[in-house]
Amino acid sequence: MNIIVKPIITEKMTGISEKLNRYGFVVHEDANKLQIKTAIQQMYGVTVERVNTQRYIGKIKMRNTKNGFNTGLKGNCKKAIVTLKEGETIDFYSNL
Asked: pTM of the full predicted structure?
């Protein structure tokens, strides 16, 4: 099971990471905080102080077509906000 799906790289999350040393990740729905912590420490080689998780329910989407309205559901996801030890950072752009 792959714990970390992808990092969250948005303008808002970048501002938070610069000020508060917190980074966001989309993680597997069944992962707990200890699994997330060990996966981040192994992948990026940093010390994690705290992990906060959030569950998001997929939104209902509708569109009007020739045959009427089609409805669907976007997928659920789980986000983890990770606080690192003072003085440590994660560089997402080093692999590019």
From this structure: 0.84
Question: Given its phi and psi angles, is residue 94 left (phi above 0), alpha (psi -120 to 50 degrees) or beta?
Answer: alpha
Domain extent, residue 40, equals: 4-84
Residue 92 has pLDDT above 90, yes or no: no
Q: In this structure, is residue 96 part of a structural domain? A: no
- CA angle in degrees (0–180, nearest 5) for 56-6-43: 125
User: What is the torsion angle, in degrees rounded to the nearest 10, for the CA atoms of residue 35, residue 20, residue 76 and residue 74?
Assistant: -150
Q: What are the start-end ranges of the H helices in 2-96?
A: 11-20, 33-44
Residues 6+ apart with CB under 8 A from 8: 23, 24, 25, 26, 79
Asked if the structure places residue 74 within a domain, the reply is yes
Of 39, 44, 32, 26, the residue nearest 80 (C-alpha) = 26
Strands 22-27 and 4-7: antiparallel
